[in-house]
Amino acid sequence: MKIHEYQAKELLATYKVQVQPGLVAYSPSQAVDIANKVTHEGPWVVKAQVHAGGRGKAGGVKFCKTTQEVKEAAEKMMSKPLVTHQTGPDGVDVTKLLVVKAVDIAHELYCALVLDRKTSSIVIMASREGGMEIEEVAEKTPDKIFKICVDPAMGHSAYQSRILAYDLGLPKELHAQFETMIQGMTKLFIEKDCSLVEINPLAITTDNQLMALDAKVTIDDNALFRHFDIKELFDPSQEDPIDLEAAKWNLNYIHLDGNIGCMVNGAGLAMATMDMIKMAGGEPANFLDVGGGASSDMVREAFKILISDKKVKGIFVNIFGGIMKCDVLAKGIVEAVTQVGLKIPLVVRLEGTNVEQGRKLLNDSKLNIFATSDMGEAATLIVKKVME
Ligand code: GDP
Ligand code: MN
Asked: Cα separation of 338 and 131, whole Å?
């Protein structure tokens, strides 16, 4: 789960990472009130709160010298969706702004913690090349990124951040601050089950303070059950409505870019189905594993999700009924189509438990279904149908 910059900074502050004084505003006039509350005189930075990076280059971060400028920046940001290289062409609506006291930057560093599955450890990465394009640094000059591994069971030791401080060439007077910061970030990462804690830029201010000017924190969804405080930070407005609907029904759904909607049971069969569609020259619109114990209600809602996706031009149902019974599946499909109609081709490949009852239900429904028991044939057929 992603959280907003302002939420990430509040968390980091409780772990002794220095951040600028600032608060969230929900309107331009409130942004001005908050600017006055945060500091008596400017400058300020007004920042769009969206779950996407690259705001600086897209007009989502504005440096303001007066409260009038704060007001204007806020009005402009909230007036239209923000489009960054991470949002897609439609962008995202800006309903919240973070207003902070601006600092004078002497240098912008990069610092992040991620999980490394290969070494089963936390990797702390840091670079002198902070600011906006760390991906480019990683690609073109990877030697400018320094890394150390932290055993999650041991936690962070002071010598590790000292190594990084020397690698980064930090002045001696900043080493203690750096150590406190890395310790705080690591503690946060472990205690809140994060998959990412990133500070970019980590500023060295002109008065020699280390300060997190931007923050990204992502929490492992599988650990949310034990972090009620974090769960509350979820912002549904930042999620794709289709994903929200799928999550509501406990469906294992991942949206993709193609135009063939897939409904499959079992993750392995779902992967194989996507491969077969690709081999037949098509592109899957999603990964969807309805699971073993799906009810016909779940199947119905899953099918409705597929139909509601405007990009879907055909549906391929590929079920091998084991625990999942074919008649339960057929009932769900028929219900969905009765409720919302079906204007696109549907190819069904059904085998396994209760297959006869399932086929009968589909046949009796008089739906326009292309049924086959051969998986390869079914994939070829649906690809052909969406191309027609
Ligand atoms: P991002 O583009 O979405 O990653 O947004 P950031 O929060 O990282 O802001 C982008 C850039 O704005 C930073 O790299 C800084 O150069 C600049 N910036 C942000 N806060 C301040 C500040 O307090 N003072 C100054 N001078 N620049 C800032
Ligand atoms: Mn940033």
From this structure: 54
- Residue at a domain's end among 75, 102, 129: 102
Is the per-residue pLDDT at 73 higher than 80? yes
Q: Label residue 252 by pLDDT band (50, 70, 90).
A: confident
110 in catalytic set? yes
78 and 110 together in one domain: no
pTM, to two decimals: 0.85
Atom from ligand 1 closest to the CA of residue 214: 7
pLDDT band, residue 132 (cuts 50/70/90): low
Average pLDDT over residues 245-261: 91
Tell whether ligand 1 has an atom less than 6 A from the beta carbon of residue 53.
yes
Cα(133) to centroid of ligand 2, in Å?
9
Q: Are 259 and 312 in contact (CB under 8 A)?
A: yes
Question: Atom 22 in ligand 1: which residue has the minimum CA distance?
Answer: 102
Ligand 1 center from residue 355 Cα (angstroms):
59
Which CATH number do you get for residue 310? 3.40.50.261
Single out the residue in 102, 133, 152 at which a domain terminates. Answer: 102
Q: Are residues 288 and 376 in the same domain?
A: yes
The encoded tokens of residue 24 equal: 């969230």
Mean pLDDT of the chain: 93
- The owner of tokens 């999620």 is 239
Inter-axis angle of helices 375-387 and 267-279, nearest 10 = 50
For residue 298, give the nearest of 267, 343, 321, 265 by alpha carbon: 265
Segment 338-376, tens digit of pLDDT: 888 889 999 999 999 999 999 999 889 888 888 888 999
Residues of the domain holding 298: 241-387
Instruction: Kindly report the protein residue whose alpha carbon is nearest to atom 3 of ligand 1.
Output: 55
Write the pLDDT tens digit of every residue in 166-205.
999 999 999 999 999 999 999 999 999 999 999 999 999 9
Closest ligand by atom to 54 CA: 1
Specify the number of domains making up the chain: 3
Same-domain pairing of 175 and 192: yes
How far apart CA 253 and CA 243 sit, in angstroms, is 7
